[in-house]
């Protein structure tokens, strides 16, 4: 025992009892440093006892620490860290307590944590935890590791140091989360959600590890996000299941953990990115989220909104969207909107989901289709001039594009002055090219309304702007959108003459009109047709940056036009443009179903009415292809028969020449 240390500790105890904190006493600190150094080299047992006494008092901030003592403490803490991760267990309880005390002192003087040697030793601790698993997760000193990890997270969140961006710390944290034992931690937490208290292992996982992941660089995190989804998504799904049946019994701390986890996996780990391994779990999470929202619980609006955000983000995946549509959720989503009338963000997310899942029949049954149009237009108007809202603007324009496939919504958007808003988004130079592109694509769909078509055509300023974009843009997608809109607004004068001048000779046997989302099946069909010596026009690059004449010439010079039908096809202004032009040209159209259970409705249903549909998912590729060959042969025989009857002046039933397409309806010219 050191009498000098005992004397100073007695004085510090007196200062503590009288609440005298943050005293400047370098004399005491210098004596501590001298005496501890002496004991460290002469009597290690006494040293461990004395440094425990000293650090127990100093971690309470009784006196302000100087660099001399902090450097000494840092050196010894690094030694203890090394012992810990090398599994050289502490010789007595003093080391364990000192380890705890020093972590508190260094947390209070966090600039010392930037020491490179300390960082490397700490990373080795995390690697050891990941390698050993359960025994290290439950080690009595795991709280020290959690405290350090939280301090590093605080440093990163305040941008006080740049080492985090390039260190191995992130990788070691992901390794810890992907160990088998974390699944057991989730399971244990699932059994203790009624308790307000969290054990040290749960604090390490949910507060320490996940807390740091939430601040990791997004691009770097995406490299390992798949591993996190595969390992832990099912565990999060299980938590949601438990919450659904016992939400009233959950403690506030458990609800916070669930809310933080769902937030993290939504925005950082992006759990809605679909792969076949996680697909069933993702569908289940969607279903559970809907049931949770219908309850409803008002204990955490953030969690409720996370459930809605998950469903909304799921609609961006074709596989999850198909699942949601099969559930016929329209009335359920309107019920959820009614339950949360005062929650603006929840209301908005409900309508974003509805935009993706509603069918033509759903739209027709709406009492007020203008209401859903108003929600989107009001929100877009509100944020168009806000900085930092570009992602939301992009998403809004995408949802509006989906809604525009429905005549009633499209007409309501026109009535509520949505066209000037789209023009603004398409032409204001402060927006990036993706916003401009999506706004132009919406105007392309709107232009099939006769009034919109005329208004846009007469807007000379706008026509000049889109002409400039089509000629000068270096962004292929934006150029294509501008070129397509310009083409559809200016083609009317030449259409009649082009039809009158068409001949029976064709350059191609087949033109394939398709959505890029269905490219795999379409490319398979293209390759098979080529193999069977058909002359086929299909643009594998979706006409990026090339003149629209290539598309129109293909339609004009093809014997058949295949419409590859799906939700994505119906929602695409480009596909609608191709289908309508083929109809105006009186081409021989053969509809092909690309997605299982798909039934065309709305404008696409009108275009293909009365035509034989070849359903590839239903029959399988080979059988469907054989049916397609039969349909091609049947059409050729009928065309040959009609040509013979016409040549001999015998009346025959043919497609009338007085067909035009206006406002998404096939009508006869008067």
Rg, Å, rounded? 34 Å
The CATH architecture name of one domain reads 3-Layer(aba) Sandwich
The CATH homologous superfamily name of one domain equals Toll/interleukin-1 receptor homology (TIR) domain
Number of helices: 36
Topology-level CATH name of one domain: Rossmann fold
In the predicted model, the low-confidence regions spanning at least 5 consecutive residues are 650-670
Strand fraction: under 5%
Broad structural category: mainly alpha
Write the layout of secondary structure elements.
Elements: H1 3-17, H2 26-42, H3 44-58, H4 67-85, H5 93-108, H6 116-132, H7 134-137, H8 142-157, H9 169-177, H10 180-191, H11 200-213, H12 218-222, H13 225-246, H14 252-267, H15 279-294, H16 301-314, H17 318-326, H18 330-339, H19 344-357, H20 360-364, H21 369-383, H22 390-403, H23 407-415, H24 418-427, H25 433-446, H26 450-458, H27 460-472, H28 476-490, H29 492-500, E1 508-513, H30 519-531, E2 536-537, H31 549-556, E3 558-565, H32 567-571, H33 573-584, E4 588-593, H34 602-608, E5 614-615, H35 616-619, H36 621-647, E6 659-662, E7 665-668
Parallel strand pairs: 1-2, 1-3, 3-4, 4-5
Antiparallel strand pairs: 6-7
Helix pairs in contact: 1-3, 2-3, 3-5, 4-5, 4-6, 5-8, 6-9, 8-11, 9-11, 10-13, 13-14, 13-15, 14-16, 15-16, 15-17, 16-19, 18-19, 19-21, 21-22, 21-23, 22-25, 24-25, 25-28, 25-33, 27-28
